[in-house]
User: Which sequence fits this backbone?
């Protein structure tokens, strides 16, 4: 199984690497908000996709009590969009619960780290060409 990397493309920032059996997409799934990061595979990966409408139909008909749990989670995330405590998520950087990596104070220190790496590679390549 391949590992997945989490990247915020708009700022060219590497956020984290997911290992086998880790999940992603739960914020969008429960809140309905657009995704703020992109997940890319580093190799062959098997993914399981959970369609939100199919999920809701399934729990509505088979587990109606779960609909209330889903709606409560959704309401909490919409009511307080920067608090992810109801999903039990930890920040990939500081490991504290309640916020996500792009809202972490540490994020400002790494923002654009992919751009900086690419700039460094370009500079190293140019220096190498000049030496030859």
Assistant:
């Amino acid at each position: 199984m391949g590992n997945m990397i989490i990247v915020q493309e708009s700022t060219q920032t590497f956020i984290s690497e997911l290992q086998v059996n880790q999940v992603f997409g739960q914020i969008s799934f429960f809140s309905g908000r657009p995704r703020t990061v992109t997940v890319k595979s580093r190799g062959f990966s098997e993914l399981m996709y959970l369609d939100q409408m199919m999920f809701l139909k399934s729990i509505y008909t088979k587990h109606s009590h779960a609909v209330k749990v889903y709606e409560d989670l959704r309401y909490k995330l919409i009511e307080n969009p920067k608090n992810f405590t109801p999903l039990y998520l930890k920040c990939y950087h500081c490991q504290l619960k309640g916020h996500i990596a792009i809202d972490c104070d540490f994020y400002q220190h790494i923002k654009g780290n992919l751009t900086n790496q690419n700039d460094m590679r370009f500079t190293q390549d140019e220096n190498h060409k000049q030496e030859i």
